[in-house]
Amino acid sequence: VAFIWSFLMLSQEVLILIEKVILEIVTSLSKDEAPVLVLPNRSSWANVSFDNAVGLQMTSGSSVTTVRSNCSSSVTKFGHILKVLSIIYKLVQSNVYATKRDIYYNDTQLFGSQRTVDSIVDDISCMLKVPRRRLHVLATSKGFISGDLCYLEEDSTKVDCHSNSTATPVSSNVGGIRNIVSSAKFVLIVEKDATFQKLLDDDFCTKLSPCIMITGKGVPDVNSRLMVRKLWDTLHIPIFALVDADPYGIEIMCIYKYGSVAMSFEAHSLTVPSVMWLGLLPSDLQRLRVPEDALIPLTQRDQNKLTSLLKRPYLACQPAWQREMEIMQQNKVKAEIQSLASIAPDFLSRVYLPNKLRYGGWI
């Protein structure tokens, strides 16, 4: 009864927040003034502060973006926000959930693209200061998970991730997951789907010790990040990251660990500050004598990204990461995880990862 009452109160709070926005619009119209929506700016580094225990989080006095109804450059966005607000209001009122894809197909001509809906939902979540799940909007997951893990979905469907041949899609409703059961010793975040599948084929999750592998297939979606956070909160086991030894792999790892500017308003539920860099380290390339023809010269774009990363506020508390990035900067080369196959086809799962995990080769 207490849970139901709490749920109803939270739903009522969301409805009141939306009604407040609409009332302000109606009030402006009654005064013959053009309605305006004020959104926190989700793309500016000036709007975030860094906390070692949380990651990147939006500051209370953040700069804003004004969406005007009487301005040709923003009137379309104004209309999009009102349309999505009306859909969210009905969802919350009816206690029904929808995906961002469902919202897009509600009026494809109005929205024009899925990306428009994705951005608007995040803008509304940030404007109302309400997590997206409380808006009853779910995202379709692109990530996969496998290993020593069982849990129940919100509708009581049992999910077993033990299969060695196929991975389980990450839930689109991570917040509703309960009854997590696992004897995993660690979680391994794998940057790329190809590497994830290779480790799955090699039966990595059971050969060394029971573990859980998860991939966001590149830049992680919110559900993959929520799932890593859920596992950390529930299981209290080490979280390792396996990414390419290049600036973009490092940035992906930083998103899991410290978050992103665009989603800094939800940092407390998305970041996992305990994530450790297992590999592929730039210093590993020399130490393992990875063949030169498997190394790739840094492009100017890579060098710019690396310079940008080294200026990030969280690098100051990660001197070991900083040293690795400086090695990359000096050697002017990068390498994909797959480059280890040039040493031996199964080197990654048979030698590299077991040795790293046994002897503490992470930073």
Automatic annotation (TrEMBL):
Enzyme Commission number, as recorded: 5.6.2.2
TM segment ranges: none
EC primary class: isomerase
UniProt keyword Flavoprotein, yes or no: no
Signal peptide positions on this chain: 1-16
Residue span, Spo11/DNA topoisomerase VI subunit A N-terminal domain: 77-137
One BP term from GO: meiotic DNA double-strand break processing
Key words of the record: DNA-binding, Isomerase, Magnesium, Metal-binding, Nucleotide-binding, Nucleus, Signal, Topoisomerase
InterPro entries, sorted: Meiotic_Spo11, Spo11/TopoVI_A, Spo11/TopoVI_A_N, Spo11/TopoVI_A_sf, TOPRIM_Topo6A/Spo11, WH-like_DNA-bd_sf
Catalytic residues in the record: 105 (o-(5'-phospho-dna)-tyrosine intermediate)
Entry protein name: DNA topoisomerase (ATP-hydrolyzing)
